[in-house]
Design goal:
By secondary structure, the chain is α/β, with parallel strands linked by helices. The radius of gyration is 20 Å and the shape is globular. 26% of the residues lie in helices and 29% in strands. The chain is built from 6 helices and 13 strands. Strand 1, helix 2 and strand 2 form a beta-alpha-beta unit. It binds zinc ion. Zinc ion (ZN) binds next to loops.
Length: 255
């Protein structure tokens, strides 16, 4: 090969490699994503839970226990954090706190809701729109349909199926097994986009979904009661991918 042809080939190779690198690198992976992790209102095994969080790649997090976390959830938080991960089971916000939280979601801050967070805000029906679902702590009526109380059952084994193999959170993942708590009789909004399902006699079918609220992307994952789940590599992968996906601002491009 003549020298100038060699140089041209090398330039082309370098351009190809840099393009490939850019395409394979998730957006924002050059700096850690900043997570505000809300906790409280429900017990959990703290050492194992935070042990998992300490090991998650590309993520830094700040613990935000109730009740101090409530007054953080207002516009301005999006300058300090990319994503709120909600593992708390909050009972009540004041009307002002509800407004501040929904105003915050207009900024496009990412939202990930885990496990018993589905049981939060028993007296704030709008919360089901925010996270795309609702565990009924008491009987409720939605769109004219009456729902009884939801149920839970610990220590269940699940064969989990990927419902959407093309979504960034689940792409390339195979069906997997999980040992965790089952929830049943909960509500999933017709607007929610289901990512994971189970066929289990004590658990509802749809167990993970995405939605959006305001300008925020929202990912909900039912799993997450205890160490057996947190130590499952697939769980950690779903959590990291869910945080990365929620951190993106263009909520309308992929629901
Ligand atoms: Zn639980």
């Amino acid at each position: 090969m003549r020298p100038h042809a060699m140089i041209a080939a090398l330039i082309l190779l370098a351009a190809t490699l840099s393009f490939t690198h850019a395409a394979d690198t998730p957006p924002g992976s050059d700096k850690p994503l900043r997570v505000l992790l809300t906790i409280g209102g429900h017990g959990f095994e703290q050492k194992e839970f935070f042990g998992m969080w300490d090991s998650l790649p590309g993520i830094t997090y700040t613990k935000a226990p109730l009740p101090q976390s409530i007054d953080m959830l207002k516009p301005g938080l999006e300058k300090q954090y990319d994503v709120i991960v909600m593992y708390d089971m909050m009972k009540s916000f004041t009307t002002e706190q509800q407004q501040a939280f929904t105003d915050l979601l207009k900024t496009g801050i990412g939202v990930v809701s885990l496990h018993h967070n589905l049981c939060s805000h028993v007296d704030w029906p709008e919360y089901r729109q925010i996270i795309g679902g609702r565990y009924f702590q008491q009987p409720e009526t939605i769109d004219g349909k009456a729902y009884p109380k939801s149920n839970y059952l610990h220590g269940q084994h699940f064969d989990v199926k990927i419902a959407d193999k093309d979504h960034p959170i689940t792409k390339g993942l195979s069906d997997f097994v999980m040992d965790d708590e089952a929830y049943s009789g909960f509500y999933v909004s017709p607007d929610s986009h289901v990512l994971l399902t189970v066929d289990h006699p004590k658990c509802d079918h749809n167990v993970a979904w995405t939605t959006h609220y305001g300008n925020s992307r929202v990912f909900y994952l039912m799993f997450g009661h205890g160490p057996s789940v947190w130590q499952n590599p697939v769980y950690q992968q779903l959590l990291v991918r869910g945080i990365r996906w929620a951190a993106e601002k263009d909520a309308t491009t992929q629901h």
